[in-house]
Amino acid sequence: MTTKTKKNPKAKQDAHHPIESLLRMDRIPHIWCPGCGIGIAVNALGQAIKEAELDPKKIAVVSGIGCTGRVAGYVNLDSFHTTHGRAIPFATGLKLANPELTVIVFSGDGDLFAIGGNHFIHAARRNVDINVFCINNFIYGMTGGQVSPTTPIKRLSSTTPYGSFEPPFNLPYLAMSSGAVYVTRYTALHVRRLTKSFRKSLLRKGFCFVEILAPCPTVYARRNRLGTGLDMMRFYHDNSIIRHGANPEDAAVEAGGKIIIGKFREVDKPTFTDMVEENLRHSVKDGKGPVPKINVTHGMGQKPRLKKHR
Ligand SMILES: Cc1ncc(C[n+]2csc(CCOP(=O)(O)OP(=O)(O)O)c2C)c(N)n1
Ligand code: SF4
């Protein structure tokens, strides 16, 4: 970036954002409200992709529907804005068809855990090698502020005008008990930690989950009188406790309560693709064939190579 000085008055025009190459600049300005946390997370993702030195041509970003779902439209990568709740099965298909891809699901708490909840637990159970990054703003932002599966008890929404009474999901706990190999939570304030966590997730095999607590000043904070996006960042600053290795069962988010952030889990386990290959090898060895040998390393757009075993 060039700094504008008296000697160089045109420098401002030449200034570039550090992750500009990863954004579809022709689509900027984006639709997100001032103070929204989604853009901060997108910036952290861009930085993480650069730091991980991944080839942008081998990355795919998949989103569902919602304000967060719009991320797929702004990244200058192969990206897919899929139907509501279906980002994970779409991403699973991409990864199985082309295991060389780094597949990122970037979507909201409503998309991933209400209509898409079933896909989440099964992809985690199977340890599909994808990265699921969830913006948790505790609400359905895009559709005007309905209660979501993560809305804390007592919080107001357009569908809970007297306060939500449904127990919310504790996302890291859900991810870990479903089988995710890497589970972290940060807030939109903890940009450096979030960037590092994205980077580690992108470089790690298996089902990785990063939860990003992010302000939605427009429909969540306003209705709950939590102030502006900046006020919410101040809240994160004053109330986040970094506790790596904490039991996620103890990390539920309660209205106005302390927030436990950090890395909850990092383990190695065979991925779904590993298990498919292993299972095929055993079936052949046990003489239970004929079993087609699927070459899972074929590229996108190519037909799977099926070979019969004698
Ligand atoms: C099948 C279907 N049902 C409902 C909707 C309406 N809808 C669009 S976005 C959304 C909620 C998104 O909430 P979340 O994932 O939390 O994203 P945010 O907008 O907060 O980022 C809903 C219910 C839809 N598009 N498709
Ligand atoms: S409605 Fe909320 S989540 Fe959607 S862009 Fe505005 S602040 Fe962000």
Helix content: 25-40%
Domain count: the total is 2
Shape: globular
Q: How many distinct beta strands? A: 10
Fill in the CATH topology of the largest domain: Rossmann fold
What's the gyration radius in Å? 21 Å
Low-confidence segments, ≥5 residues, pLDDT <50? 1-5, 296-310
Largest sheet: 8 strands, mixed
* Distance separating the two termini: 62 Å
What is the N-to-C order of secondary-structure elements (H for helix, E for strand)?
HHEHEHEHHEHEHEHHEEHEE
- In the sheet with the most strands, the strands line up as 2-1-3-4-6-5-8-7
* Mean pLDDT level: 91
- How many H/I helices? 11
Which ligands does the model contain, each kind named once? Answer: thiamine diphosphate, iron/sulfur cluster
Give me the CATH architecture of the largest domain, please: 3-Layer(aba) Sandwich
SS strand fraction: 15-25%
Structural class: alpha/beta
The CATH C-level class name of the largest domain:
Alpha Beta
Layout: helices, strands, pairs:
Elements: H1 11-14, H2 38-51, E1 59-63, H3 71-74, E2 78-81, H4 87-97, E3 102-108, H5 109-115, H6 117-126, E4 131-136, H7 171-178, E5 182-187, H8 191-203, E6 208-213, H9 217-221, H10 229-239, E7 240-242, E8 259-266, H11 272-285, E9 293-294, E10 306-307
Parallel strand pairs: 1-2, 1-3, 3-4, 4-6, 5-6, 7-8
Antiparallel strand pairs: 5-8, 9-10
The chain binds thiamine diphosphate and iron/sulfur cluster.
Explain how this protein is built.
The protein has eleven helices and ten strands. The chain is α/β, with parallel strands linked by helices and 310 residues long. The protein has two domains: 252 residues, Rossmann fold (3-Layer(aba) Sandwich), CATH 3.40.50.970; 35 residues, no CATH class. The chain has an eight-stranded mixed beta sheet, sandwiched between helices. Strands 9-10 form a two-stranded antiparallel sheet. The chain starts with 10 loop residues before the first helix and ends with a strand. Bound molecules: thiamine diphosphate (TPP) and iron/sulfur cluster. The site of thiamine diphosphate has 18 residues, from strand 3 and helix 5. Thiamine diphosphate (TPP) binds next to strand 3 and helix 5.
